[in-house]
Amino acid sequence: MTSPLEQKTRITGPVVVTANRLGDGAVVYRTLDGHWTTHLAQAAVVTTAPAASELLAGAVADDLGAVGAYVAPVRLNKDGGVQPGNLRESIRHSGPTIDLPGILGF
Amino acid sequence: MLLVRGGRVVADRYLRVLDDAPIPDSVPVIIPAARFLADAAELARREAPTGVLWPNNRRISELVPHLDRVALVALAFPTFKDGRAYSQARQLREQYGFRGELRATGNVLRDQFLFLVRAGFDSFEVTKDADAAAFAEAVGRFSVFYQPAGDRRAPALRARLQHARPSVADAHERV
Amino acid sequence: MYLYDDFDRTLVAERVAEFRDQVRRRLSGELSEDEFKLLRLMNGVYLQLHAYMLRIAIPYGTLSSQQLRTLGHVARRYDRNYGHFTTRQNIQFNWIKLEELPDAMADLARAGLHGMQTSGNCVRNITTDQWAAVAPDEIEDPRIWAEILRQHLTLHPEFSFLPRKFKIAVTAAAHDRAAVRVHDIGLRLHSNGSGEVGFEVVVGGGLGRTPFVGKTIKPFLPKRDLLSYVEAILRVYNQFGRRDNIYKARIKILVHDLGAEAFAKEVDAEWQPIRDGALALDPALIAEVTARFRYPDYAELDDNPSEVAQARASDRRFANWLGNSVANHKVSGHAIVTLSLKPEGGPPGDATAEQMDAIADLADRYSFGEIRVGHEQNLVLPHVEQRELPALWRALDKVGVATPNIGLVSDIISCPGLDYCSLANTRSIPVAQELTRRFRDLDLARDLGRLHINISGCINACGHHHVGHIGLLGVEKNGEEYFQVTIGGRADENAELGALVGPAVPYAEVADVVEDIVAAYLELRERPNEIFLDTVKRVGVEPFKERVYAAR
Predict the structure, then answer these.
(1) Residues C494 and C356 in one domain
(2) Exposed/middle/buried for residue C477 (C-beta within 10 Å: 0-12, 13-18, 19+)
């Protein structure tokens, strides 16, 4: 999972635009109406390079809402639901794959 | 782009002359380095002040033989992240004793003002107008410095030895 | 430990005020992200996968108990109740909000803590031996010099926009516990033939994409010249380090391209005009800084008190811990105690807020209120009376930091990896956790002896995998997690980079591969006390390669 910030834009399937919210760093996704949402289900999903570029351009310009925007792959379920498209995006979506120490105590 | 000098926005009395344009006689001018060096002898005969725009990837030592004939050196920050001109400035001020105007040009932003002043710059072509207005506030942000630099302020190490401690607000107050 | 005065406190407070204003201007849109990013990095604020991450400097790894409590407070108040100690003696909090950062920084500033220059293209936290001032093999306290350098290089107007990050380490002992030969500048305090103490100056070491062991450009630099010489090195780097390619921008590339001799000449040319100027360190200045380091008023005690002998004879668990986690102290009757942050199944180097509070209390009671942070991501209580060891051990055991695995196979050094870090190719923490489970048998771990496993989730090498006895480097192949495996690296005075064992292995198999390497070592070692590193040196990589890849 090479940092997508270093990749050339290449669309091989459905994608969303994702970033981190400015104020608190939370993972967010770009919506069709030009906002940011923490819910992947509400993210704009596009399937062509021009659409992705346009979505990304709007996201990058909105650096007061969120920062570090890039194009990320998603997978579409049979029922139309959207899932993260690789391990990195799964981790961003659902959190670290490990238990956080705070709950372990001693 | 506004010029700040002496802590405030001022008019620029220097004319920036590009590579092929004629150099007016009785006006202070800033000339690119290559041209300055090529025409050094001729320029030395000028009566009005001469300034040179020196690139940040060229050794200051090449300018040194001409320093006594230069009233202003303009150094370059192609982006604010490119800090080569800070070294050039300190060499000019501290090693070669340059006393003329030392100007920061290029991507000059508010959050670098104090570093620039400490490195020895005394005039600034400020990228954003709002930053120019905030110059005095920006350079007043810190009252303590650990190291000696081109601005001749006493560094903390030395000041401690002299027991000259600044009075400070209660460290427990919320900053 | 070093005591802050008005100067230090004022500087940190002013920096917090400046950052508060910068955050305000960012949130209002006055500053773009491109303008703000480097400013926040210079205060230790990263943007990671899930949230902002705050990296706080622990200068030369020394913490007071009050400072450790403050870290616990920050973990509770602003984060998710835990922190992560790093390979550069810093601590990281992974869930901080930008909006709350100025308040968190103000709380830290009150304890003399900050994130200044823990990121960005400036000089980073200067690290040293976590046993400074208490190690028997030390010539003098290296932290004095780390502090002199720290002050000089903090908010230095000329060196705040270098081509790239800059890391300095200092050692003063025969055995280098600070890995100075793989730093941008490594300083080794030693005595010359005439009994004078000065610095060997090593430049251009580093890990990452193009790892190098540093080159000595000055075998002996008098103390007086330390600041001016370091200034000259930085001035050369600032002017001539590459700025066109971030992967070629470290000083190690410049030293390699010019050659050590030509580089040393450039440094000398910059140094001559300044060596006798304001940066010359006179004895009064050095004494002033030294005077602000407080050393404990040790009691006069004998070694091997009966309390220890009795406990060792009657409690096997205590005996194991004593033999593993307790090291000789230069003052008789005292001991250096290492606290393992590598429990079985735990993420390496993490501590909860509760643990931080408990350790702070124990430091007050048993260690003159002082704690150290090591680059192997464990903590140290440096001033413990030997007669207190049984009581201390019972308390540490309750806190969960007494696993007797220091320096052993399960004392794994790992970066945060893809679970947290936006630069990573692979996860690293779950691999470390699995390995601690595979090697949970402490008898086996003791039998294996000293064995350092280092895991990096990407080529940036924050886990120092190049210098691991076994090094794991996370790479991506076809969208899947893989690891390159190296063996035979070491970070000490004989620093060496590890050699590849074979083709990269998939994530699901990497723990098996490590087990196979260990099995191969057991088979190949000449005698039980030949450590892994020496076996690799003796037989080379081939025998390991054969055994590990035979069935793959």
Answers:
(1) no
(2) exposed
